């Protein structure tokens, strides 16, 4: 085989590898947008429907429902924006998305007493989003 043919074959192999994994980044971006929108909704519910979430006598970690409502509202809006920015493939968007997914997971952990099922689902999805971006993020930027 000539050197040019080997280079072409190697380039095709890299392209196939790249295209096979880029779906994870798109998945991460879409999931981050959805998680952000759901987090915004939960923040709005905490702000406007005080009796929706039931908190036991031990209460919530650090803040009351209104405080967590604002935190969820702001984090959700930022995560949604970061999810859309992730489609650009920019390195800053990947870093921002991972940081916001981590912050969202932490905020969901603190919100466990109020809404445990959703909080556990959100934490699992945040971890999956972080994994997809960290492990396969470079393919989107190439």
From TrEMBL:
Annotated transmembrane regions: 21-48, 68-87, 117-135
Domain DUF7144: 24-138
Keyword match Transmembrane: yes
Ranges in a coiled coil: none
UniProt keyword annotation of Membrane present: yes
Keywords, sorted A to Z: Membrane, Transmembrane, Transmembrane helix
InterPro entries assigned: DUF7144 (IPR055568)
Protein name as annotated: DUF7144 domain-containing protein
Taxonomy, superkingdom: Bacteria
Pfam families hit by this protein: DUF7144
């Amino acid at each position: 085989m000539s050197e040019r043919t080997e280079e072409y074959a190697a380039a095709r192999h890299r392209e196939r590898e790249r295209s096979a994994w880029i779906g994870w980044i798109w998945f991460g971006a879409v999931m981050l947008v959805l998680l952000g929108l759901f987090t915004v909704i939960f923040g709005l519910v905490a702000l406007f429907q005080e009796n929706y979430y039931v908190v036991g006598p031990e209460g919530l970690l650090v803040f009351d429902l209104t405080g967590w409502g604002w935190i969820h509202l702001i984090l959700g809006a930022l995560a949604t924006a970061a999810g859309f920015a992730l489609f650009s493939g920019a390195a800053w968007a990947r870093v921002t998305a991972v940081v916001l997914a981590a912050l969202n997971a932490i905020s969901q952990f603190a919100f466990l007493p109020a809404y445990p099922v959703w909080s556990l689902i959100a934490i699992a999805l945040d971890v999956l989003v972080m994994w997809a971006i960290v492990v396969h993020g470079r393919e989107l930027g190439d």
